[in-house]
Design goal:
- The protein is an all-alpha fold and 113 residues long.
- Helix 1 runs antiparallel to helix 2.
């Protein structure tokens, strides 16, 4: 299943995310990261799921943390996420509104009703 970028309904299950992380980790451990096969595997996961490259890398790094490091990281990340959530939703909504207005403008220019 493929998800277009910036789709409002993007969702992923924990099972799928953990499976993708494991798949990426498997190629990282068995193949030199300089080798194109590892990068190709990551690109395939990103394309198939519609993940943002940096976000997936962040989750891979987070998943690899020790329990103590993860607990401290998660305390900070979850508090920051909650604090920033309204701003993020506003920015995304504005982006989608602009994209919709651009599409409507192009349709009007093309004479599409």
């Amino acid at each position: 299943m493929s998800y277009p970028k910036n789709e409002k309904g993007f969702a992923i299950t924990l099972e799928d995310l953990l499976q993708d992380i494991a798949s990426a980790d498997d190629t990282a451990q068995t193949i030199s990261e300089a080798n194109g096969e590892h990068r190709s595997n990551i690109k395939g996961i990103l394309d198939e799921r519609g993940y943002h490259k940096k976000a997936f890398a962040d989750f891979r790094a987070m998943h690899a943390m020790s329990d103590e490091k993860f607990a401290d990281y998660w305390r900070t990340m979850s508090a920051c996420y909650e604090a920033y959530k309204i701003e993020a939703e506003s920015r995304i909504s504005d982006l989608l509104d602009r994209k919709g207005a651009e599409s409507s403008g192009m349709e009007a220019d093309m004479g599409v009703n």
